[in-house]
Amino acid sequence: MTKQISSERKTAYYIGMGLMILGGLMFASTFVTFILNFGNFNNFESNAKSGMLRAFGGMALLIIGGIVRGVGALGVAGSGVKLDPQQAKEELEPYSRMAGGMIKDVLDESEISLGGKSEKIIMIKCQSCGKLNEEDSKFCQECGKSI
Ligand SMILES: [Zn+2]
C-alpha cells in the first residue's frame, strides 16, 4: 500500500474533528446551563433563547464537522462529494445489460404467443350457413358443405 493521504485531506480530517468536538461541547453546554439555572426563572426566556441558539449551532457544527471529516478520511470521490457519472455508468452496465436482456426475452415470448393467437383468429365463413370455420378445414362444421 503506497497510497498516500494528502496533507489537505489530513487537515480536513482534523478540522472536521475539531468542529465536531466544538459542536458537541456547545450542544452539551446548553444542558449544563439548563441544569445550573434550574429553578431560576428570572431570565428564563433569554436563557432559553441562548440555549436554543447554542443547541442549533452545536448541531450544525457537528454535521458540518462530520462532512469535513468524512471528506478528509475518504477523499473527495470516495465520500460521494464528487460524483463520476462515467464510472457510475460503467459500474451499472452489467445490470442494465441484464435488465435489457430480460426485457428482450419478455418481448420474444409475447411475440410467440401473439403469433399463435393470430393464426387461430383466421377463420373462413361458410358460404351457405355463415358459420365461421378454421382456415384449413375442408368442410363446414355446422352444415357439412365444402368450403
Ligand atoms: Zn356451413
Could you give a short account of the major beta sheet?
2 strands, antiparallel
Helix content: 55-70%
Mean pLDDT: 74
> Which ligands does the model contain, each kind named once?
zinc ion
Coarse morphology: elongated
Q: What percentage of amino acids are in beta strands?
A: under 5%
- Any idea what the radius of gyration is? 38 Å
Distance between the termini: 85 Å
| SSE string, helices as H and strands as E | HHHEE
Q: Helices and strands: which structural class? A: mainly alpha
Tell me the total number of β-strands: 2
Strand order in space, largest sheet: 1-2
The number of helical elements comes to 3
What ranges have pLDDT less than 50 throughout 5 or more consecutive residues? Answer: 114-119
What distinguishing features does this structure have?
elongated, mainly alpha, binds zinc ion, 147 residues, two-stranded antiparallel ribbon
Provide a quick synopsis of the model:
This protein has three helices and two strands. With 147 residues, it is mainly alpha-helical.
